[in-house]
Design brief:
Blueprint lengths: L6 H20 L20 H22 L7 E2 L6 H16 L13 E11 L11 H17 L4 H23 L9 E11 L2 E12 L28
Parallel strand pairs: 1-2
Antiparallel strand pairs: 2-3, 3-4
Helix pairs in contact: 2-3, 4-5
Length: 240
């Protein structure tokens, strides 16, 4: 008996199998991976950025102390771990606290009012994206493709080339103006936290997260310990 072959059935079979597969996947009891809402994060690229952070922390500490209504007492900034950032940040923080009109102690005092700060670097194994995004080029290509393919399909290639040329000029000007360090997110971040405390009680805390270049991570970490000296070997000299 001859077998009936329907071209329409053959074409529809893959679609039916795909629909069945998707229907089966839809019933899996596994959470779906989703992105966080769009946000922004600053990138520390210069000592000036450390100063901006110190000024912001000093303003928040001053606002907290003034809100208590108590007479001002000397505040001692406890040194952090021995890193380039911690030394520079403490120096900047002392200056900004004095600018806020707060009395700052040179040594730990009887008041017990102390400001502690700490840094933690986090290096992700997978960078979030390119360090040098080209937004104008990307935008130009997207606009050209959407417009030219829908209206002037035959001239799409020329439209994309023209738009990309303009985008490259704008992106090149941006990199020349801001420098390569103005690139986008990196795979390395730093968390800077401060804690104002007295008598074992937290009066205020701050936490700020920044992108940093991977090559700058050593500024936020203590220097590795020096290798232990090799012990000297001694030989017993036996006479003739």
């Amino acid at each position: 008996m001859p077998t009936l072959h329907s071209p329409s059935l053959s074409c529809a079979l893959p679609a039916l199998l795909l629909a069945a597969l998707l229907a089966g996947c839809a019933t899996l009891d596994v959470p779906r991976a989703d992105n966080y809402p769009e946000s922004s994060q600053k990138k520390a690229r210069a000592v000036h950025h450390w100063d901006v952070l110190a000024e912001d922390v000093a303003a928040r500490v001053a606002a907290t102390l003034r809100a208590t209504g108590a007479p001002p007492v000397a505040l001692y900034v406890v040194p952090g771990a021995d890193t380039d950032f911690n030394r520079g940040f403490r120096s900047l923080l002392l200056t900004r606290l004095v600018d806020q009109g707060l009395p700052v102690a040179v040594q730990p005092g009887a008041s017990g009012l102390e400001l502690h700060f700490d840094t933690q670097t986090v290096r992700h194994s997978r960078p979030p994206g390119l360090n040098y995004p080209m937004p104008m080029t990307t935008l130009a290509a997207g606009v050209a493709v959407a417009r030219d393919l829908a209206v002037y399909d035959h001239s799409a290639a020329a439209g994309v080339a023209s738009a990309l040329g303009i985008g490259l000029i704008l992106d090149g000007a941006r990199i020349a103006r801001e420098g390569p360090a103005a690139g986008g997110p990196t795979g390395t971040e730093v968390l800077v936290s401060t804690a104002l405390q007295s008598g074992g009680v937290y009066l205020a805390r701050t936490a700020d997260v920044y992108y940093i270049e991977g090559a700058d991570a050593s500024l936020y970490r203590p220097a590795p310990p020096a290798p232990a000296p090799t012990p000297l070997k001694t030989w017993k000299v036996v006479g003739p």
